[in-house]
């Protein structure tokens, strides 16, 4: 069985559970670039019908809950939320996968040296995926693989053929 990858970050975001979206939104607000925070606040303003200054003044937990409720945050915000989810609570899966591929990384983030490497072969991807199955839930593996593919479809094209 092949993975079914969502073609956009927004569609993948919609598939996450409420709890996953809440973890992602809370992490998102802790370290958010201004160019992404503005559209995220706009999505909250639109959803909750708030004035922008009220949305900006919301406590962090309420802002996270509001953003987790937005199912169509826009592609840039959705992509940032997916990254926040993985960097906040799923770093072990990132590190385990990159270690299994022998790709240089720092705490689950590829280093610049990894950019010089060829995309992993299908056999290496399959072995790395099999390694993850023993330690992580299939749904988290599938979400991670889909998010990787969305970020760099050329490098991670082989992930779509896997069965986590």
Written account of the structure:
By secondary structure, the protein is mainly alpha-helical. It has two domains: 81 residues, no CATH class; 67 residues, no CATH class. It is built from ten helices and two strands. It has a two-stranded antiparallel ribbon.
Task: List the SSEs and their pairings.
Blueprint: H1 9-15, H2 18-30, H3 34-48, H4 52-57, H5 60-69, H6 75-89, H7 91-100, E1 105-106, E2 109-110, H8 112-115, H9 122-133, H10 138-151
Antiparallel strand pairs: 1-2
Q: Spatial order of the strands in the main sheet?
A: 1-2
The helix content is 55-70%
Unreliable residue runs: none
Overall mean pLDDT:
94
Quaternary structure annotation: single chain
Overall 3D shape:
elongated
The strand count comes to 2
Helix-strand makeup class: mainly alpha
Helix segment tally? 10
The end-to-end span amounts to: 9 Å
Our count of domains comes out at 2
What is the C-alpha radius of gyration, as a whole number of Å? 17 Å
Write the element-wise H/E pattern from the N-terminal end onward. Answer: HHHHHHHEEHHH
The largest sheet is: 2 strands, antiparallel
> How much of the residues is beta strand, in percent?
under 5%
Tag the structure with descriptive keywords:
2 domains; mainly alpha; 2 strands; 2% strand; 164 residues; two-stranded antiparallel ribbon
Task: Please sum up the structure shown.
Helix content is 65%, strand content 2%. It has 164 residues and is an all-alpha fold.
């Amino acid at each position: 069985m092949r993975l079914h990858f969502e073609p956009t970050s927004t569609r993948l975001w919609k598939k996450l559970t409420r709890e996953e979206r809440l973890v992602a939104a809370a992490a998102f607000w802790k370290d958010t670039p201004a160019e992404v925070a503005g559209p995220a606040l706009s999505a909250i303003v639109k959803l909750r019908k708030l004035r922008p200054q009220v949305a900006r003044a919301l406590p962090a937990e309420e802002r996270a809950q509001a953003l987790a409720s937005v199912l169509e945050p826009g592609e840039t915000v959705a992509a940032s939320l997916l990254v926040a989810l993985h960097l906040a609570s799923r770093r072990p899966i990132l590190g385990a996968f990159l270690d299994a591929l022998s790709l240089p990384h720092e705490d689950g983030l590829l280093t610049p040296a990894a950019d010089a490497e060829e995309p992993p072969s299908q056999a290496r991807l399959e072995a790395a995926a099999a390694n993850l199955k023993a330690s992580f839930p299939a749904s988290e593996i599938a979400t991670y693989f889909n998010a990787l593919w969305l970020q760099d479809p050329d490098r991670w094209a082989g992930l779509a053929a896997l069965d986590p």
